[in-house]
Design a protein that fits this description.
heterodimer; A: 364 residues; alpha+beta; Rossmann fold; OB fold (Dihydrolipoamide Acetyltransferase, E2P); 6-stranded mixed sheet; 8 helices; B: 316 residues; 5-stranded mixed barrel; 5-stranded antiparallel sheet; 7 helices; 18 strands
Chain lengths: 364, 316
């Protein structure tokens, strides 16, 4: 049995359906991320688990026990659910010391003084703030405040910790560092975590499993590698990382490799890639191609393989570690990511190739 | 702030073309409104009680431009920044990204001689920020107004600029195009600030002409001599810092010909288009950017090969 079980959860606000009947299980010790654009239902789902929203229907159980179930007339208050929460706004009290901020959750639970001291110090050690207990919260950096918020969420050994975009207020360098630290901590403490973010890089780096949501519906559940390499549909392909999406007609397959006709001017191109399992000849498919899987050549390659496209440079964006190129191929704009610098002029003719097992046909 | 006229400098001179903005020596100080500058700030400074058009037309209204010209220019500028669908809306009905576009429209509508940007994208979320970088650059190219842009975000600087001026403690550290700054930083500070770099203190062991040489590094008693490009001003025997970008190091399972450093993969972080790895060599952790299809695993022994054309010795 999973620690958290969500069955057919539905929540509307007026005429707007925020969560349209989702099912999700989270195992003990697992780090599960709800990922999607704003309005996809991820935060509403989290707030239903927290007890901050009442669902219209469906059920949520922790350790088999319903915590909310409109059908059964059950709705536990947030405090009775024994969950920890970490928010984007740190919600750290400025007039209290770090120690008192963290101990607060234990005090309202009427924990004895010696136990409070012991548990608070342990939580502060864990998040790397062991030396700063006496400091006032206003004297802390953004990253340190976020750690206080985390210590406060884990100090009373909650069954699950819920995270609502906790890193979005930090600057880029600190955010990257905190991602890694959060995961390390989560593994060390073994806390079951449900994490909400709109930041796909965060989801890839931190999660055991990612739940991609859009318009209140789960689009795909899987580990980061699978979600990235084998997206279930065009939405997932484009939301996680960057994908070139080209429409075409399925022709046939030989083993794992399928072939489709992509309209790219006249004559249409025949391209080979994996995916499109179960597709019928003539069916519409979409080729999903990651920019880093496309090779760009200045001269026609001698042995191009089965997938060769001719185009011209529209524009390049220099990122330092990558050079992002936009290439016009017939009616399409294809993004190519190069790992070295090359001086490319708009209008310049180039050739693109990709390995068949690096492209993916999606049947919509 | 000094260019804008919001701060008075202690000394020095600022000119725009033939116009002196400020000169302490000649006792010249032009107030901000006389400098003909468009400004875009982090806080959009869009008036909530006015429509989009009214916000954009404001600089023309106070310059008493005639009404039909105002209407034409406001419409053209709103189109340029891609907000034509929002006409007639109050500023409060615009999203963060749209408000920033409105602020840009207001800054360019009166065709200023100079545009100043003060971290205009820092309040936007990452995807929107990345989109707006490219968009801002496109608009700037189209209107062709000279722009001075302030940011702490090095990625933004690389993507948008013709020239980057890296500053530290009130001084210019290096000036150059994005690729020159990224690929050939002169100092440890620039190397570390722009992009990510592996930095190890060492000594120039040999110079070989044409800006090439060898740097010696020692960690935990293990000595390595690495072929490298030398920053201007470094000679044999000088203290220097080895600087290599994560994407210019290759982790190989078989020992390659030539120099290599043997280490252990201690962390891999999957980011989709690349794998961010840490490899421990002696007491140093190398940051490496690997292709996900190489499938490096934690605990694996690997040989690090540093690309000599991208291995730099820079000033400490």
């Amino acid at each position: 049995m999973s620690l958290v079980e969500i069955d057919q959860l539905v929540k509307s606000f007026g005429a707007e359906v925020a969560v349209a009947g989702i099912d999700l299980n989270v195992d003990k010790g697992e780090f599960v991320t709800l990922l999607g654009p704003s309005g996809c239902g991820k935060t509403t789902t989290l707030r239903c688990i927290a007890g901050l929203e009442r669902p219209d229907s469906g059920e949520i159980r922790i350790s088999g026990e319903p915590i909310t179930s409109p059908e059964k007339g059950i709705h536990l208050t947030p405090e009775d659910r024994n969950l920890g929460m970490v928010f984007q706004s740190y919600a750290v009290w400025p007039h209290m010391t770090v120690f008192d901020n963290v101990a607060f959750g234990l005090k309202i639970r009427r924990t004895s003084r010696s136990e409070t001291r012991e548990k608070t110090n342990k939580a502060l050690e864990l998040v790397g703030l062991g030396q700063l207990g006496d400091r006032y919260a206003t004297k802390l950096s953004g990253g340190q405040r976020q750690r206080v918020a985390l210590a406060r969420a884990i100090v009373y050994n909650p069954r699950v910790v819920l995270f609502d975009e906790p890193l979005s207020n930090l600057d880029a360098k600190l955010r990257e560092q905190m991602r890694i630290e959060l995961v390390r901590l989560q593994r060390e403490v073994g806390i079951t975590s449900v994490y909400v973010t709109h930041d796909q890089a965060e989801a890839l780096v931190m999660s055991d499993r990612i739940v991609v949501m859009n318009k209140g519906v789960i689009q795909q559940i899987g580990d980061p590698e699978t979600i990235y390499a084998r997206p279930a549909n065009a939405f997932v392909a484009n939301f996680i990382g960057v994908a070139n999406l080209l429409e075409g007609k399925f022709l046939g397959r030989s083993g794992a490799i399928a072939e489709a006709e992509i309209s790219c001017g006249d004559p249409p191109l025949r391209l080979k890639a994996i995916g499109a399992e179960g597709a019928q000849a003539g069916q519409s498919v979409i080729l999903s191609l990651r920019p880093e899987d496309v090779a760009l050549h200045l001269e026609a390659p001698a042995s191009p393989g089965p997938n060769l496209l001719e185009g011209e440079i529209i524009d390049t964006i220099y990122q330092g570690n990558f050079l992002d190129c936009q290439v016009r191929v017939g009616p399409h704009e294809i993004g190519v990511q190069m790992d070295h610098f090359e001086l490319l002029d708009p209008g310049q003719k180039v050739f693109l190739t990709f390995e068949p097992d690096h492209g993916l046909f999606l049947s919509e | 702030m000094s260019i804008a006229g919001l701060h008075k400098p202690d000394a020095g001179e600022i000119k725009l073309g033939e116009t002196t903005f400020t000169s302490t020596e000649n006792n010249v100080y032009l107030p901000p409104e006389k400098r003909d500058i468009g400004m875009v700030f982090q806080s959009y400074a869009i008036w909530p009680h006015m429509t989009l058009e009214k916000n954009v037309s404001y600089p023309l209204d106070i310059r008493k431009v005639n009404q039909s010209e105002i209407d034409d220019r406001v419409l053209a500028t709103i189109r340029l920044v891609g907000l034509e669908d929002m006409m007639g809306k109050d500023a409060t009905q615009l999203s963060g990204g749209q408000q920033q576009r409105a602020a840009l429209a207001r800054a360019i509508v009166f065709h200023p001689k100079l545009l100043l940007f003060d971290e205009p994208l820092s309040n936007l979320d990452l995807k929107l920020r990345e989109k707006m970088r490219v968009e801002l650059k496109r608009i700037q190219n189209e209107v062709g107004i000279t722009s001075v842009y302030v940011t702490h975000d090095q990625a933004e600087a690389l993507v948008m600029s013709d020239d980057i001026i890296v500053m530290s403690k009130g001084k210019i550290e290096q000036t150059g195009g994005p690729h020159a700054i990224y690929a050939r930083p002169r100092t440890r500070y620039v190397s570390n600030f722009i992009g990510i770099a592996n930095l190890i203190e060492g000594r120039i062991a040999r110079t070989a002409g044409e800006g090439r040489g060898e740097i010696e590094i020692t960690r935990n008693g293990e000595r390595a001599l690495l072929p490298c490009l030398l920053a201007d001003g470094l000679s044999e025997g000088d203290a220097a810092v080895l600087s290599v970008r994560p994407e210019n190091i290759h982790a190989m399972r078989e020992k390659p010909d030539g120099h290599s450093l043997e280490g252990e993969v201690i962390q891999t972080v999957f980011l989709g288009n690349y794998l961010d790895c840490r490899v421990r060599w002696q007491d140093f952790e190398w940051k490496i950017q690997a292709h996900p299809r190489e499938h490096l695993r934690e605990g694996e022994r690997v040989y690090l090969h540093l690309d000599a054309d991208h291995t730099l010795a820079v000033l400490p």
